[in-house]
Structure formats: C-alpha cells, structure tokens
Give the backbone structure.
Amino acid sequence: MIRTDAKTTDRAQKEIDLANAYAARNYDPLPVVLTRGEGVWVWDVDGKKFLDMLGCYSAVSQGHRHPKIIAALKEQADRLTVTSRAFHNDRLGPFLKRLCELAGMEKALPMNTGAEAVETAIKAARKWGTLKKGVPDGKAEILVCENNFHGRTTTIVGFSSEPQYRDGFGPFAPGFVTIDFGDAAQLADKIGENTVALLVEPIQGEGGVIMPPEGYLREARRICSERGILLVLDEVQTGLGRTGKLFDYLHEGIQPDLLILGKALGGGVYPVSAVLGSDEVMGVFQPGDHGSTFGGNPLAAVVGLASLDVLVEEDMAANAARLGDIFMAELRKIPGPHIQEVRGRGLFVGVEVKEESGTARRFCEALLDEGIVTKETHKQVIRFAPPLVITEDEIHWALERIQRVFTP
Ligand SMILES: *Cc1c(COP(=O)(O)O)cnc(C)c1O
C-alpha cells in the first residue's frame, strides 16, 4: 500500500508556517519547501533531493536554471531590463523574428503570463470579427470547450466549466458558448452568424490531460476555415516541445490562425507569453488598442530567445517524444488495483487513479516520500510534465519509484 511516512522537519515547518501566516490561501502546496534547482532536480531546505516531475506545469521545460538561459538573463540584467514599449529596444525584434519563424507565423504580440496572452487572443478574435467579418460591435461570440483551462482572469474563469473557478467571482463577460471538447460535429453545429473563433487546447492540461479523438484538430481546422471563423489554439502548456513536436498541432499537420504561447517561453526563469498570427488577424491592433507595461521588455525578450534557442539546439521535442513513449509504455505495465488509465503525448502524461483507491493527492504525497515532486489535477489525475532535458536513466529512476507507490 502507499505510504506517507515523511516527517516535515522543524526547519521546513518554520518556512511553511511563515508563508501560511502571510500568504492568501489560494493554493494548497505539498509539504515540501524547495530552495535550489538544477536541471530536472530540486532540493528542499533540509538538503533532500527530488526529481521534479511537474516542471512548473511546463514552465521549466528547459530544466531549472539552464546555463545558457541564465547566462543570457545575467548579461541582459547588467545592460538594460525594462523600458516599456513607449520606446524601441534592441532585443524585441530578434526574439519575435525567431518566434514567428519557428511557428510559421507573421506577427507576434508579447505579453507576460498565459492568461494575458489568452485575453489578447480574445481581443484579437473579437476585433477581427468586427472589422473583417462585419459582426456588430459587442456581439462577437467565441466557442470554448467544456473542461477548458485558459487562466484565471475574470473573463477567462467566466467561461470555465469548473464551478470552483467561478464561485463568487461573477458577474462574468458574455460572448462565450461552450461546446464539448473533441466533438467536431457539435462545433460545426454551434457556429452562428456572430461566431468569430474557436478557442481550444490541443490537449486539455488542467482538465486532466484529456486527449481529443485523433483527427479532431484537423476536422476543427477544416470547419473553421470553411465557416470563416478563427482557430485559436492555446498551446501555453502543450507548446514548445512538451508533446514531442515543437507545437502539438504539428501532430495533425495543421496551422492555427492564432497561437497562444507562455510557460516554457520564459525558460523557467521569467514570465514570457505571446500571441502569434497572420498579418491579417494581428493587423487589427492599432497603436493604443492594447498593451502591457512589461510585455516585450528587453529582459523578457532575451530570456524568450534563449529559451527557444536551447529548445531547438538540444532537440528537446525529440527527447520528449522518445522518452514520453518509454515512460507511458512502462507506466501502462504497472500492475495493481490503483491505475484507471495512463494517457498523454510526449512528456505530457496523466495517470488517472481509480476512485476507490482514493484521491491522486495521496499518491503525490507518497511520491514525495520517494523523492519525486508532482501534483494532482482534478482530484483523480497525477500529472507528469518533467523538464524536457530529462534522461532515459532518470525516467527509469522515476519509474522504479512510481511502481513502488502503485504496487500493493
Ligand atoms: C497555465 C495555462 C494558462 C495560464 O497561464 P498563466 O501564466 O498561469 O496565466 C493558460 N492556458 C493554458 C492551457 C495553461 O495551461
């Protein structure tokens, strides 16, 4: 049976108590206090070492403190950090050029967090609908999916189907219509005259690592094109190598109209996000329409560029594809009564725990005792999204421990 025999030391408890005394309780962290990280490893305040298999929800895909990203950050920190977009800086152009070329897009708009980039895409889609499709101002509708996760702003939680994300936070913005994830027929059915876009995650991350049926994105692409609405892909979590290709949509050989990136774009050190699209769609923004004090600052641009460079140079997507296959194949061999399903793509993996075995949280606590940090999502699912620099030996090291936790 799973054990949870780790004792929180006095040293760790002191830090936890201090944080609890002053931090609003919007999170429920595992009882571990981290103080150092390198590559796929993190250390707690007592010097105990853990394999990081959450990877900051995909924000540390390049590993903790990747030397080239940290070097770029330090060099830029000694030169120029934030300027605002009231002026040009000499770092933004090279970053956005590289980003657009990698994604096959013409224009990018830099922001900071994923939620801000989602908000930016919503504004772009609505304005495009108003200017280019003739949808009356204020009437634009965006289709979103049941079980989505796109961030935590009031507009975004307003179209969440998770009651806890919404409870007590209304009123919410209108203009969103929810359809089932992975159901192309329903998508075609729900497009109305004021519909401007489908906003969708290629794989639902927070929703429990939910895979759509094979071919869904291709079908969605075809329907959106035929009906003249934008396909807006939120690849904040799936993008940048996580699922075995640089972008998850490449598995289906399509191109979205708007692409939302974040998390790993900041290389594990700094919040960097962006929305990318064609000249036609991104061209709806005029000076003054939209902005961000920090978005596209020189430090962010340098970190973003270095983050992309190391992803490509070290072919992290290929590593994710190869090791993800091994990891999932071995997870599926684990005997015993606890595992309902193993699913995912590349190093984006969900292990669903049977309800009669208790919540995924219990297993995450047991994994913590074994030297692995990760976190449950949606009660029954353990998410594994380790840094993409993980090695095959480290995957086997993890598997041995995961096996132990799941074996009676
Ligand atoms: C994490 C996430 C976001 C929000 O990103 P933040 O940086 O936390 O605002 C948006 N979309 C998806 C798919 C995500 O996983």
Notes: The first helix runs from residue 10 to 22.
